[in-house]
Design a protein that fits this description.
The protein is an alpha/beta fold. The protein contains five helices and four strands, in the order βααβααβαβ. The longest helix is centred in the first third of the chain and has 13 residues, at about 20-35. The two termini are about 15 Å apart.
């Protein structure tokens, strides 16, 4: 149990291993999003970098397979992580997720590898 509500960045593969296949990327995003409910149910706020980065890319007229994507996806996660309290690292190879974990560790933030490791919010102290 914890008495602190956390913003938890969910990090894992999005583009990795997809060879630019948008259906595979959508499946990867669905896996990231599947972890959002358990994080929320534990009393915390789940965040995923792609939830912010993809609309930013679209507004610039680009998509996740365009050259511009690296200029948006990785920096978005880094900026978002500056406002997060922890990272949930999902399985799978991902350069971006590995960068998120390394940055979180440098900042002294907890890195969880399973939603069961995330402490539930003590509801008596929650606001």
């Amino acid at each position: 149990m914890t008495d602190k509500r956390m913003r938890i960045l969910i990090a894992g593969p999005y583009r990795s291993g997809t060879d630019g296949d948008t259906r595979a990327m959508a499946a990867n995003l669905a896996r990231l999003e599947a972890a959002a409910w358990p994080v929320f149910a534990a009393g915390h706020l789940p965040v995923i970098g792609e939830w912010i980065a993809l609309p930013v890319l679209r507004s610039a007229g680009a998509g996740p397979t365009d050259a511009m994507a690296d200029q948006v996806l990785y920096p978005t996660a880094q900026r978002l992580l500056a406002r997060c309290d922890a990272v949930l690292r999902l399985p799978g190879e991902s350069v971006g997720a590995d960068q998120d974990v390394a940055l979180a560790r440098r900042r002294g933030l907890p890195v969880y590898h399973d939603v069961a490791q995330i402490p539930a919010l003590d509801r008596q102290g929650a606001a």
